[in-house]
């Protein structure tokens, strides 16, 4: 997606050979117009897939997922990383090792908001090693839901997550695929 690639080039910061910081429009401050365009793009890709719900992960998956949900006219449910008094039982849970935080979070989704009648579009901000996607797929499988595909804002194509998911037969659609972050430079596939 051209507008996303332009935002990455103009505002992204290469923190290391495998970490891209996009805090100014996706991970901290959010650019609503860009989110809306990305939501439209995901919705166009999945308009005939019979999506009934979008499943994402807090926090940074929520903005693009909500925009896609708005266009597709379906609810968006996000995996929560911390339990709370209002979220104690009746849960699907999965462990997700965080690439950026280097800790394992148990993500939870209420059984009230996911079931075997669902056809899901899974959305997340980044795809690196595929741990977050794996956790969300685990939750979807526990619910007996069908997964139509996985929509990613930025896939780092030089890390193994995308290849592994596609080899498992999942449809993966990434709005931007970064092929390298070497020498402090973003290169797209
Ligand atoms: P994975 O689970 O695929 O290894 O990594 C994806 C998750 O880690 C995403 O949910 C995202 O929050 C985070 N992540 C992975 N790589 C990056 C990166 O280069 N930049 C940022 N900002 N987040 C990343």
TrEMBL record:
Pathway assigned in UniProt: Purine metabolism; XMP biosynthesis via salvage pathway; XMP from xanthine: step 1/1
Q: Does the keyword Cytoplasm apply?
A: yes
| Primary location class | cytoplasm
Chain segments annotated as coiled-coil in the UniProt record? none
Example GO molecular function term? xanthine phosphoribosyltransferase activity
Q: What gene is this protein a product of?
A: xpt
Q: What is this protein called?
A: Xanthine phosphoribosyltransferase
In this chain, xanthine is annotated as bound at 20, 27, 156
Which EC class is this protein assigned? transferase
Localized where? Cytoplasm
Matching entries from SUPFAM superfamilies are given as:
PRTase-like (SSF53271)
HAMAP family linked to this entry: XPRTase
Report the domain of life of the source organism: Bacteria
> EC number(s) on record?
2.4.2.22
The record's similarity note reads:
Belongs to the purine/pyrimidine phosphoribosyltransferase family. Xpt subfamily.
UniProt keywords (A-Z) are:
Cytoplasm, Glycosyltransferase, Purine salvage, Transferase
Substrates-to-products reaction catalysed: XMP + diphosphate = xanthine + 5-phospho-alpha-D-ribose 1-diphosphate
Q: Taxonomically, what lineage is the organism? A: Bacteria, Bacillati, Bacillota, Bacilli, Bacillales
The UniProt record lists the keyword Cytoplasm:
yes
- Look up and give the organism this protein is from: Kurthia populi
The portions of this protein that span the membrane are none
Q: How does it assemble?
A: Homodimer.
Binding positions for 5-phospho-alpha-D-ribose 1-diphosphate per the UniProt entry: 128-132
Q: What does this protein do?
A: Converts the preformed base xanthine, a product of nucleic acid breakdown, to xanthosine 5'-monophosphate (XMP), so it can be reused for RNA or DNA synthesis.
């Amino acid at each position: 997606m051209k507008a996303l690639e332009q935002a990455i080039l103009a505002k992204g910061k290469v923190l290391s050979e495998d970490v891209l910081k996009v805090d100014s429009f996706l991970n901290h401050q959010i650019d609503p117009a860009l989110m809306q365009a990305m939501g439209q793009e995901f919705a166009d890709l999945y308009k005939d897939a019979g999506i009934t719900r979008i499943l994402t992960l807090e926090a940074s998956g929520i903005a693009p997922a909500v925009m896609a949900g708005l266009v597709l006219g379906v609810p968006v449910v996000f995996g929560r990383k911390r339990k709370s008094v209002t979220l104690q039982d009746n849960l699907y849970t999965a462990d997700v090792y965080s690439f950026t935080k280097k800790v394992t979070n148990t993500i939870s989704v209420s059984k009230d908001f996911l079931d075997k009648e669902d056809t899901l579009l899974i959305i997340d901000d980044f795809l690196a090693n595929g741990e977050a996607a794996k956790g969300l797929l685990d939750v979807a499988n526990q619910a007996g839901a069908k997964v139509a595909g996985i929509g990613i804002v930025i896939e780092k194509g030089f890390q193994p997550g995308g290849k592994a998911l596609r080899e498992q037969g999942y449809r993966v659609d990434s709005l931007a695929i970064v092929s390298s972050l070497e020498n402090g430079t973003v290169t797209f596939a």
